């Protein structure tokens, strides 16, 4: 059945049937239209192989179009494929680090009493600050501000200035290997600029060099973005714990006003959960005939 290719979940198939009846265009229809679910010959073989490029005004180029199998600028098929991979890495790292930047901004604002949140895990705050060599005397709010100052300064280091976050958090044996390979990173913003500028025509077309820059960026992202982001969210919202919960489209209850904040960042969802717990907001929902208000929050909030 066509629906079986969409999902094994009955609720998802039911929703798909409903939107098709309502003539709503959806991702599965667009997937089929691209040839992804049907004949693979519909897909461009050069795009599929990663051997094409349209990053400059001389293109688009195919790596097999000339006798020596190079693009107009001289880049090989290996260089084309790795350059596109590096650009994808930049997009992923920048998106993840945008999240981390917002987390640090929220933690700082919370320490200044400018958000409805509070520091739920002061011990984790102290432990992280000590690992980074940050002074922990005074109040937890003062320590939180010092933590934000430290990580934001590290994010903004040049790519040739070694990251203090990576130096403090990474295993000794890994750091030695990274330094030997020349992939111990600087600040993540500098790494993203270095990686992106390397993808300009005739700046760096050597697949090995591009791959090493991707590795540097991945190390920067793992420690400066992922580690710091998850740690600071735990400090703000509490360390997640296993708990029973409803999932899938079964979270919707027709008797309630259902609010579903959608996104990777938890800040809005968490604030809405806090509001929904207040009697006045439940009363607003009951005033229009509902049983109450339910917020199905982003899973990262742990709520």
Characterise the protein shown here.
It is a single chain. The protein contains 13 helices and four strands. It has helices spanning 2-6, 10-21, 27-33, 45-49, 77-111, 122-131, 140-155, 164-169, 172-181, 188-198, 207-237, 267-276, 279-286, and strands spanning 52-53, 61-62, 257-259, 293-295. Strand 1 (52-53) and strand 2 form a beta hairpin.
Mean pLDDT: 88
Largest sheet: 2 strands, antiparallel
Total E-strand runs: 4
Q: How are the strands of the largest sheet arranged?
A: 1-2
Order of helices and strands: HHHHEEHHHHHHHEHHE
Distance between the ends? 36 Å
Could you give the topology of this structure?
Blueprint (H helix, E strand, L loop, with lengths): L1 H5 L3 H12 L5 H7 L11 H5 L2 E2 L7 E2 L14 H35 L10 H10 L8 H16 L8 H6 L2 H10 L6 H11 L8 H31 L19 E3 L7 H10 L2 H8 L6 E3 L8
Parallel strand pairs: 3-4
Antiparallel strand pairs: 1-2
Helix pairs in contact: 5-7, 5-10, 5-11, 6-7, 6-11, 10-11
Core attributes:
disordered C terminus; two-stranded antiparallel sheet; two-stranded parallel sheet; single chain; 55% helix; mainly alpha; 4 strands; 13 helices; Substrate Binding Domain Of Dnak, Chain:A, Domain 2; 303 residues; 3 domains
């Amino acid at each position: 059945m066509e629906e079986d290719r969409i999902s094994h979940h009955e609720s998802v198939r039911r929703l798909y049937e409903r939107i098709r009846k309502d003539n709503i265009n959806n991702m599965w229809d667009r997937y089929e239209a691209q040839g992804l679910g049907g004949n693979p010959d519909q897909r461009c073989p050069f795009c599929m192989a990663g051997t094409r490029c349209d990053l400059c005004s001389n293109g688009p180029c195919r790596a097999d179009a000339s006798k020596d199998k190079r693009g107009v600028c001289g880049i090989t098929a290996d260089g084309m494929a790795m350059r596109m991979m590096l650009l994808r890495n930049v997009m992923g790292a920048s998106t993840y680090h945008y999240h981390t930047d917002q987390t640090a901004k929220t933690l700082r604002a919370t320490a200044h009493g400018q958000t409805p949140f509070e520091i739920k895990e002061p011990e984790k705050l102290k432990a992280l600050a000590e690992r980074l060599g940050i002074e922990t005397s005074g109040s937890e709010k003062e320590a939180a501000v010092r933590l934000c100052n430290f990580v934001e300064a590290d994010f903004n280091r040049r790519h040739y200035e070694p990251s203090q976050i990576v130096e403090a958090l990474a295993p000794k044996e890994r750091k030695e290997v990274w330094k030997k390979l020349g992939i111990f990173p600087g600040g993540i913003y500098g790494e993203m600029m270095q990686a992106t500028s390397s993808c300009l025509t005739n700046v760096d077309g050597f697949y090995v060099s591009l791959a090493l820059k991707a590795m540097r960026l991945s190390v920067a992202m793992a420690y400066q973005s992922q580690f710091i982001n998850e740690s600071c969210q735990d400090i703000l919202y509490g360390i997640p714990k296993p708990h029973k919960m409803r999932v899938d489209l079964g979270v919707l209850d027709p008797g309630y006003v259902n609010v579903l904040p959608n996104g990777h960042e938890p800040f809005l969802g968490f604030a809405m959960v806090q509001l929904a717990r207040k009697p006045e907001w439940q009363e607003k929902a009951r005033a229009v005939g509902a049983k109450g208000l339910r917020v199905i929050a982003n899973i990262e909030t742990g709520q």
